[in-house]
Design goal:
The complex is a heterodimer of chains A (about 500) and B (about 120). Chain A has about 500 residues and is an alpha/beta fold. Chain A is about 30% helix and about 25% strand. Chain A contains 14 helices and 22 strands. Chain A has helices at about 25-30, 50-60, 75-85, 105-125, 135-145, 145-165, 235-240, 285-295, 310-320, 325-330, 345-360, 370-375, 380-395, 420-425; strands spanning about 15-20, 35, 40-45, 65-70, 100-105, 130-135, 165-175, 190-195, 200-210, 220-225, 230, 250-255, 270, 275-280, 300-305, 335, 365, 400-405, 425-435, 440-450, 460-465, 465-475. In chain A, helix 4 (about 105-125) runs parallel beside helix 6. Chain A is elongated and about 100 Å long. The N and C termini of chain A lie far apart (about 85 Å). By secondary structure, chain B is an alpha/beta fold. Chain B has a single domain (about 5-115), classed as Rossmann fold (3-Layer(aba) Sandwich), CATH 3.40.50. Chain B contains 5 helices and 5 strands. A 5-stranded parallel β-sheet of chain B has the order 2-1-3-4-5, sandwiched between helices. In chain B, helix 2 (about 35-45) runs parallel beside helix 3. The longest helix of chain B is centred in the first third of the chain and has 13 residues, at about 10-25. The relative contact order of chain B is 0.18. The chains are: A alpha/beta (about 500), B alpha/beta (about 120). Chains A and B meet through helix 3, strand 5 and helix 4 of A and helix 1 of B.
């Protein structure tokens, strides 16, 4: 018989967190800053340091904490409060009882770093602050006679922060660069920057150091809004491992396209993705509208589009006999439209995922991937970005169709804007215009489907007032994929062969 | 020449107001917080105290209370300045002579000082 231990093994207590209250940042920091830690927030002027720090202060006092904001050579408190006042985070009633603004510059001038440390210590105690911001650390650094003296100052601040269980943010200007002496001492270092990409700019945040906890590595874009900073954790970092367990199935979901499901084994495999490639005007959006028209309470649908406004989509759907307004009213369908502008890639992906989760979406139509591509300031991310996003959507049990516009309207080759798209999706179909007997006709080619055979025949499809439907295979033609169909057994270019499938459409068929 | 004690922790504001008041013909002394102001009251013997509200070590409210509790200074005029609304300040101390919400205009500030000092 063995003696069981009298008590369970001891685990060190988890370190308490102080949430920043900044959407996205707390996710990156796995819950927030560590209580009693000292953190440097570094960035060029205008990067958003002051707003970040104030946002955290207002969040902190709103949840019962107390905060002190100490400035050195920074903007005046009056100006700062004027700039913050229009923001939703600003709560004047918190000042001065719970959030207190003081300047330490005169003390620094008169009494040096020793006097400043004393002032900080007094403010922590006097205000009973559980969060303190020192805005303008560079002024303290310039006052220090040496690196050693400055490190000693930071060390003393750390000591007082730890003793009083007060989290401290030290704000300093400067570009991300080599490690400096003070960086080695603090508990964490966050860089904010605002980079120019050709004619546009994008703000980004990077956690370069975070003691005692993991954090999401790399750069994460953010915006400054009237709600303060909104950070969008980079999709590849946050969903590198999907948020839910993947549960693959052989179940099928109706495509909504008349005549298609029989060609692909009974429908699109659930929780899979389909890329729909084709040139402008070929019918990709129409294809997706049919897919979404099957949305229901059990299979909520989401249209995530970049090009046509919700109003135009509803009109387009109605022209095809599809009642989108009714589906929206019943809650079975939502249309989320992104205005074409300077979108942030990760913001779009989070908006998409949030919309999926909010309603438990099962049918997703993204029109199209080009909207994401155009938003990317780092195009080399795209393949990995889509791979991770698709994996996350699969894990959320979403069956997705993505459109992707090809550059050529009628051509022997297809140019797609994302490398390796075939490896990122389980299902792929190409919609093409084909010239046959001096007519433009529409062709659907299934390239691959997940876990099932498919009919490899090139199919003709049509779009009429009743919608999009598969007509049947192009039986008599060759070289269809070149865009220039050829009927080798035809006696003359103008002759038609009776009973040869949909080789000759009636007048008007196949018109765009 | 009337003497003003300016109590302000923000260096830029303290410097600017000192110069402006000196241009108007006042003798001006400044202190970076309420504690330093109290320490120099006897030496300076001001005719007016112009003080910020939020300051380190000893704030404007505590300074005002200390002055009103001191028989030597209980009647000295006090101008309280703050970026926060007057009601937030008055909850802590309402014994000031006048309140100035920051940001303020120079004519408004100088007019107030002139009215109080009777020049």
């Amino acid at each position: 018989m063995t003696n069981a231990p009298a008590t369970a093994p001891e685990h060190p207590p988890a370190l308490d967190r102080v949430p920043s209250g900044i959407h996205g940042l707390d996710l990156i920091l796995r819950g927030g800053f560590l209580r009693g830690g000292v953190y440097i927030i570094q960035g060029v002027p205008g990067a958003g340091k002051t707003i970040l720090a104030n946002q955290m202060c207002f969040t902190h006092v709103a949840s019962g904490g107390r905060a002190a904001y100490v400035t050195l050579l920074a903007e005046s408190h009056t100006r700062m409060l004027q700039h913050l006042r229009p923001m939703s985070l600003f709560d004047e009633s918190a000042i001065p009882e719970r959030l207190y603004y003081v300047s330490g510059f005169k003390t620094l001038e008169d009494e040096g770093l020793k006097g400043l440390v004393d002032l900080l210590r007094r403010e922590i105690r006097g205000q009973k602050a559980s969060l303190m911001v020192l805005d303008g650390l560079v002024a303290a650094e310039e006052t220090a006679g040496s690196d050693r003296e400055f490190k000693k100052f930071v060390h003393e601040v750390q000591t007082h922060a730890a003793m009083h269980d007060c989290t401290v943010l030290l704000l300093t200007s400067g570009k991300p660069g080599p490690v400096r002496a003070e960086h080695t001492m603090v508990d964490g270092l966050i860089d904010l920057d605002d980079q120019v990409f050709e004619v546009r700019t994008e703000r980004a945040l990077q956690v370069r150091k975070f003691r005692g906890s993991g954090s999401l590595r790399g750069r994460h874009p953010f915006r400054i809004t009237t709600d303060g900073l909104v950070v969008y954790p980079r999709i590849e970092a946050v969903f590198g491992t999907p948020s839910a367990q993947d549960r693959p199935t052989h179940d099928r979901m109706a495509s909504g396209i008349d005549g298609l499901d029989g060609l692909i084994g009974g429908g699109i495999v659930r929780a899979s993705t389909m890329a729909l490639l084709g040139s402008t005007g070929i019918g990709k959006t129409t294809f997706g509208l049919h897919f979404l028209a099957r949305s229901s309470e059990a299979e909520p649908g989401l249209m995530f589009g970049f090009y046509e406004t919700p109003e135009r989509l509803r009109l387009k759907a109605a022209a095809l006999g599809l009642d989108f307004e009714g589906l929206e009213r019943s809650g079975a369908l939502e249309i989320v439209w992104q205005a074409q502008g300077e979108n942030v890639l990760d913001e779009l992906a989070h908006r998409l995922r949030d919309a999926v989760r909010r309603r438990g979406v099962r049918r997703l139509f993204v029109d199209g991937l080009g909207g994401f591509v155009e938003s990317a300031v780092h195009p080399e991310r795209m393949s990995r970005f889509f791979s991770v996003l698709s994996n996350e959507l699969r894990a959320l049990d979403v069956t997705a169709i993505y459109t992707m516009e090809t550059r050529e309207i009628i051509a022997p080759t297809l140019q797609v804007p994302i490398n390796g798209i075939s490896s990122l999706v389980e299902n792929m179909a190409v919609l093409r215009f084909v010239e046959a007997r001096a007519r433009t006709r529409r062709l659907l080619s299934i390239i691959k489907t997940r876990d099932s055979d498919f009919d490899p025949a090139l199919q003709e499809f049509e779009i009429t007032g009743r919608g999009l439907r598969i007509v049947g295979p192009f039986a008599r033609y060759e070289n269809l994929l070149s865009g220039q169909a050829h009927a080798p057994d035809a006696p003359s270019p103008d002759a038609s062969a009776p009973g040869a499938g949909p080789s000759e459409p009636p007048p008007g068929r196949g018109d765009a | 020449m009337k003497t003003i004690l300016l109590v302000e922790d923000e260096f830029g504001i303290a410097t600017a107001l000192t110069l402006i008041l000196e241009d108007e013909g006042y003798r001006v002394f400044s202190a970076a917080n309420g504690r330093k102001a109290l320490d120099r009251m006897g030496e300076i013997a001001p005719d007016l105290v112009v003080t910020d509200f939020m300051m380190p070590v000893l704030d404007g409210a505590a300074l005002g209370q200390a002055l009103r509790a001191d028989p030597a200074w209980k009647d000295i005029p006090i101008v309280m300045m703050s970026a926060v609304p007057e009601e937030s300040v008055a909850k802590r101390f309402d014994g000031y002579t006048a309140f100035l919400r920051k940001p303020f205009t120079l004519p408004g500030f100088l007019g107030l000082v002139t009215r109080i000092l009777g020049d």
